[in-house]
Structure to design on (213 residues):
């Protein structure tokens, strides 16, 4: 993930799913010189949720202006906890070994919490694409809760991890990167998180190695 100029996306969203981009928000996770945290404060969390389209601009703006500072700190800590348990489970899936049971239980708590904070309400005509009244799930009184982006990320993660798409998750072939992505290529042979970045870098390294050899 990268920071860019004002008005342009702040995050490199190349994973094909918000939950995978979320795991990638701890950059350089496997490098010896240590990871780089890209969710440094609550504003970053809101910006990430907005750029991944889990949170619309209006809700993000309201949360930014109304969130209690302590609640914002707790929400950021909660988001990072969700991310690291999600990372353990997903890298376990990619590397073909089961994640620690403690991380599965942690994910279970996050997923239950997200569902528990939704409200069932009656939607009037026009709110549905078919123009009919009906019941629908909404965040209701929890819409201004600082934890909303965490719940949205938890729901996205839950949907991914309980779907067939789990088997198409890959890690970037560059060992210094290993960002996760959803392989939707025709033959399921995608190797890089971003061909223009890691793909070209690895090609250049192989070319240099051949010249030196």
């Amino acid at each position: 993930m990268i920071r860019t100029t004002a008005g342009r996306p702040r995050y490199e969203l190349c994973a094909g799913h918000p939950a995978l981009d979320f795991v990638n928000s701890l950059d350089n996770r496997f490098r010896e010189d240590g990871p780089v945290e890209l969710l440094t404060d609550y504003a970053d969390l809101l910006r990430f949720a907005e750029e991944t389209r889990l949170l619309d601009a209006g809700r993000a703006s309201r949360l930014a202006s109304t969130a209690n500072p302590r609640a914002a700190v707790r929400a950021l800590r909660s988001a990072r906890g969700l991310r690291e348990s999600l990372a353990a489970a997903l890298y376990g899936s990619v590397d073909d070994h089961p994640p620690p049971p403690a991380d599965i239980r942690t994910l279970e708590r996050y997923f239950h919490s997200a569902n528990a904070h939704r409200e069932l309400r009656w939607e009037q005509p026009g709110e549905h694409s078919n123009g009919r009244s009906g019941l629908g799930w909404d965040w209701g009184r929890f819409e201004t809760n600082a934890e909303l982006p965490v719940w949205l990320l938890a729901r996205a993660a839950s949907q991914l991890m309980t779907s067939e798409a789990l088997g198409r998750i890959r890690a970037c072939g560059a060992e210094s990167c290993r960002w996760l992505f959803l392989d939707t290529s025709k033959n399921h042979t995608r190797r890089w998180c971003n061909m223009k970045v890691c793909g070209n870098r690895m090609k250049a390294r192989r070319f240099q190695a051949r010249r030196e050899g």
Notes: The CA atoms of residues 121 and 136 lie 6 Å apart. Residues 69-94 form the longest helix (26 residues).
